[in-house]
Amino acid sequence: MAESEISTAAVLVIGDEILSGRTKDKNVGYIADRLTEVGIDLKEVRIVSDERAEIVAALNALRSRYTYVFTTGGIGPTHDDITADSVAAAFDVPIDVDQRAVDAMLERYEKSDLTEARLRMARIPEGAELIANPVSKAPGFNIGNVFVMAGVPSIMQAMMDDVVPRLKAGQVVHSETIEAGMGEGAVAQPLSALQDAFPDVSIGSYPYQRDGKFQTSLVLRSRNADRLAEAAQQLESILVGIHAGKA
After folding, report:
1. 144 Cβ partners below 8 Å, 6+ apart?
2. DSSP structure class, residue 5
3. Distance from the first to the final alpha carbon of the chain
4. Residue 245, pLDDT score
5. C-alpha 247: how far from chain center
6. Structure pTM?
7. Would the pLDDT of 142 be above 60?
8. What are phi and psi of 36, to 5 degrees?
9. Which of 7, 75, 165, 201 could lock onto 40 through a cystine, CB 3.0 to 4.6 A?
């Protein structure tokens, strides 16, 4: 598959609570896993504060660069939930209460319970399609190549079930993990040479400690299963040779 045919993505995490450390993000990893399942490469993650200008600038930068952009956070009922308005500003379209969103919320709330605050969650930019929310019913939305979802992990995950079928799936990336049985320093040079020989295989080195000794997990990833297998076989041979030399 040509690089130009590969779908790419970015995640824009929105919220002062993430930047302050008060809330720990649990969404990026989940989105990455779901995108990997359908062969879409997650290339960038940004975190921005609850400031309209910052959200608009980040969103416009990302949506012009990647096939898809996924945002999380800032679509609740409070005054600092400004994501929907910011997205509308980025696309230069009006935003107002959307009857489709109201109808969805009426599946959970009585009409009398749809307060002004709750109706903020029904404000959708003009031209957007809704993203179903089976958990709390207040929908997300999709406009252009941007998918706007909740920050609450259980709701975001439910929304992804509606989003994924809309995406253009790519060729799935295969991966293989090999334990080096040694620290990174011992394998760095031959690993670099192997990467040069297999430019179509991504080779990552991940060090860790076990029982006081440095160890390394080597992760190989490629859309070409045959090339992946060949690279993995050569890596295994390299590691055997290094271990033999140390004996």
Report:
1. 63, 91
2. G
3. 43
4. 80
5. 44
6. 0.88
7. yes
8. -60, -40
9. 7
What whole-number distance in Å separates Cα of residue 21 and Cα of residue 115?
A: 31
Report residue 233 as tokens.
Answer: 């076989």
Residue 1: its pLDDT value, please? 47
Q: Which amino acid is at 126?
A: E
Cβ-based neighbour number of residue 23 at 10 Å = 13
DSSP string covering 91-137, please?
A: HT--EEE-HHHHHHHTTTS-GGG--HHHHGGGEEETTPEEE--TTT-
User: Which of 242, 208, 209, 236 is closest to 220 using CA atoms?
Assistant: 236
Burial of 214 (0-12, 13-18, 19+ CB in 10 A): middle
CB atoms within 10 A of CB 158: 19
Q: In whole angstroms, how large is the CA radius of gyration of the chain?
A: 22
Residue 18 CB coordination number (10 Å) = 20
Token representation of residue 133: 């929310």
**Cβ(184)–Cβ(152) below 8 Å:** no
Q: Which of 226, 172, 217 is nearest to 198 (CA)?
A: 226
